[in-house]
């Protein structure tokens, strides 16, 4: 508490019961402070229901994933980028295989939030929860400068700029996805986070993929500006933004937003019955 003392002035008109001398007035701070543990739990709650749009500028491939899954990946990249021993394994675990990637990633943060992530440049041994808060702070600054797509151009920050010091210039980059990408532009507008990356690989993989005998149907072709979306993300956007359900696709089409109709000519979720031939 800050206390300010002042000398009472002698004036002609004094209030009743006035007493000359020193008087004290107290000033109380209205600034609120929150324990780090509370901030960490709030960060999890903020991300667990959000959807992230990723665009791989090398593969010309877009992904729609749970935001909290993206943050878990960023925490792991954070360690690998800053670790002293390049052979050291990452102490941050992966999420379990699940049809609900958001729930699986949330479990990792709730169970392992106090995990110490040691052996990084700059000293110190931050916990997983502290790394998440650092990334949240970096991400929030870029989300505030966000721009919606214009025509076939998507705007967003580079994923690695959230971990490393960004280069000179604007924190937002842009990429022209040509006419092929216009089909999923509305999903970019409705995503909570938009991020560019390079050489990401598969952000989503079929759960039943058999190692050693890959099927060509499991491979998403590059250089075609396709969007690969997690079912949970599609349902989240459709229900919260448009009050629709992707179950309507079973009847052939689904309306979302103004002048947007999602049509499906065939059912794409049946298991394929062939494998990639090998010589």
Which class best fits the helix and strand makeup?
alpha/beta
The count of DSSP E runs of length 2 or more, i.e. the number of strands, is: 10
Gyration radius, to the nearest Å? Answer: 26 Å
Helix content: 25-40%
Poorly predicted regions are: 1-14, 20-25, 28-34
Domain count: the total is 1
Write down the oligomeric state: single chain
Describe the largest sheet: 4 strands, mixed
Feature tags:
disordered N terminus; two-stranded antiparallel sheet; four-stranded mixed β-sheet; 279 residues; globular; alpha/beta; 10 strands
Describe, in plain words, how this protein is organized in 3D.
Mean pLDDT is 77; it is low at 1-14, 20-25 and 28-34. The chain has one domain (37-204, 221-263). 27% of the residues lie in helices and 17% in strands. The longest helix is centred in the N-terminal third of the chain and has 16 residues, at 67-82. It has a four-stranded mixed beta sheet. Strands 1-2 form a two-stranded antiparallel sheet. The chain has helices at residues 36-48, 67-82, 101-112, 128-143, 185-190, 231-242; strands at 2-7, 22-27, 51-56, 61-66, 153-156, 173-176, 193-197, 226-229, 253-255, 261-263. It is α/β, with parallel strands linked by helices and 279 residues long.
Task: Write a brief structural summary.
It contains 6 helices and 10 strands, in the order E-E-H-E-E-H-H-H-E-E-H-E-E-H-E-E. It has 279 residues and is of the alpha/beta class.
Q: How are the elements arranged and paired?
A:
Layout: E1 2-7, E2 22-27, H1 36-48, E3 51-56, E4 61-66, H2 67-82, H3 101-112, H4 128-143, E5 153-156, E6 173-176, H5 185-190, E7 193-197, E8 226-229, H6 231-242, E9 253-255, E10 261-263
Parallel strand pairs: 3-7, 4-8
Antiparallel strand pairs: 1-2, 3-4, 5-6, 9-10
């Amino acid at each position: 508490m800050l206390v300010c003392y002042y000398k009472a002035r002698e004036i002609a008109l004094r209030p009743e019961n006035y007493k000359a001398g020193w008087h004290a007035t107290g000033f109380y701070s209205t600034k609120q402070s929150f324990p780090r543990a509370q901030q960490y739990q709030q960060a999890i709650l903020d991300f667990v229901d959000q959807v992230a749009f990723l665009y791989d500028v090398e593969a010309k491939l877009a992904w729609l994933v749970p935001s909290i899954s993206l943050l878990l990946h960023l925490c792991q990249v954070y360690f690998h980028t800053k670790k002293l021993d390049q052979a050291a394994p990452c102490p941050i675990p992966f999420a379990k295989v699940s049809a609900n990637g958001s729930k699986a990633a949330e479990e990792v943060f709730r169970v392992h939030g106090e995990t110490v992530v040691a052996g990084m440049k700059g000293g110190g041994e931050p916990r997983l929860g502290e790394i998440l808060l650092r990334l949240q702070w970096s991400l929030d600054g870029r989300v505030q400068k966000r721009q919606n797509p214009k025509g076939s151009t998507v705007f967003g920050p580079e994923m690695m700029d959230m971990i490393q010091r960004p280069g000179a210039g604007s924190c937002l980059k842009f990429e022209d996805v040509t006419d092929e990408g216009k089909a999923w532009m509305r999903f970019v507008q409705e995503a909570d986070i938009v991020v560019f990356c390079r050489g990401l690989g598969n952000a989503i993989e079929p759960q039943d993929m058999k190692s050693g005998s890959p099927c060509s149907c499991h491979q998403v072709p590059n250089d075609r500006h396709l969007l690969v979306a997690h079912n949970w993300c599609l349902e989240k956007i459709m229900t919260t933004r448009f009050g629709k359900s992707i179950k309507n696709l079973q009847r052939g089409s689904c309306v979302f937003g103004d002048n947007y109709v999602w049509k499906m000519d065939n059912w794409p979720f049946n298991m394929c019955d062939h494998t990639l031939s090998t010589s």
